[in-house]
Amino acid sequence: MAFDTHAAANPLAPEWLAVPGDANALHPGLWSRTVERRDGELVVGGVSAAELAARYGTPVYIVDEVDARERVTEVRSALVGAFERVGGSAKVYYAGKAFLSIEVARWMSEAGLNIDVCSGGELAVAVAAGVAPERLGFHGNNKSLAEIDRAVSLGIGAIIIDSVQEIERVAEAAVRHGRVQSVRLRVNSGVHAHTHAFLATAHEDQKFGIGLAAAADAVARIRSHASLNFLGLHCHIGSQIFGADGFAESAARLLAVHTELLADGPVPELNLGGGFGIAYTSADDPTPIEELAETIAQTVAAGCAELGIPLPVVAFEPGRAIIGRAGLTLYTAGTTKDVPVAFQDDGETAIRRYVSVDGGMSDNARLALYGADYSVRIAGRQSVAPPELVRIAGKHCESGDIVVDADYLPGDVAPGDLLAVPATGAYCWSLASNYNHVGRPAVIAVRDGASRVIVRGETEHDLLMRDAAYEGADA
Q: How many Å apart are CA 73 and CA 62, to the nearest integer?
């Protein structure tokens, strides 16, 4: 017997997914600020989805410039203001790994943010954007000697030391270039946070940083080099975090070691990393950045007062919280397929509708990598058809090539429909690949009714030109 998906929630749907009263409605917590429907059609930055698809093709990444610029200002103001109110100061870096292009780097710099990079390529983008090297931080657990040398030669603001071996490498590069290089030491606080939950342990088993117990010896080695200037400890506890409890626990652990290090020299900064979460589905309820900032500032101030130490400059590295909701991806539906799926032992089935689109895991790898949930809406029209449970599948030759695992769309969704997936500004373009020799999509910025390319899409010619056996390739 087949379940009537129009009468109630489809039993194949996850528990958190409610049947919408209107499958055309745009949940306000998921979309960028300028997104709306006009005459049934989705419009972003004053430009219709149909116009964007016609001009640039699909799939295509769209970035709402107004949303990104407003959000970076709000994030910076929240963090800086919260620490000013407790008598301290905050330094804010944009985590470039979320999404970095020359244009976006300029937006961040113009808003007063520093920028974090974690590879030679990201460093090159930030420098090409005209960001002053002293406003950059360089992360990475295995920076090459060439990357370290270039960063030091440019006068980069800080290198985040990730291992004991790296201390000597950075010190030698600083001597070679006649510089005193500022560094932070990445440590593991033993706090793991994700969404609303966190776990505090004594040890961490991961590739980044060193244990807190080894921090004092590592800092002593840093301080033994006249070519290095120790700024402070750095810790990153996770990603997509809701709530401040994990940050508070990690800060308390870091401050204890920070206090010990003060006995042998200055420790002007404390970097608490990033990881502030955003909403990807209607069930997500991220903590507002203003609330997070106030709680963390109060916690750090109280901890310093209890330990009898001055407030350090507290640094943060938000990325997703700034650029995530500013982005959306447009796709065109190619095929639909109703698949009966058993959901009870007696063989009762329900229908899962697969809607295949012209992109997939090559432009959004997060579901395949992390099981990340996303939402979807028809962008080119509205419909009065009742909601139907759908799974948005990609075009790649992988059964795990899914863009949206579960959402409700109008039941008349059909080939040719233009679909929009919100909150794809972070970790989608930056994780994109050429799997199955599919070109990475363009990134289009929209603002005040106008659109422009900020990252060119790849063509088949671009892919072939990298193949040395291609007759048209450069020698």
A: 20
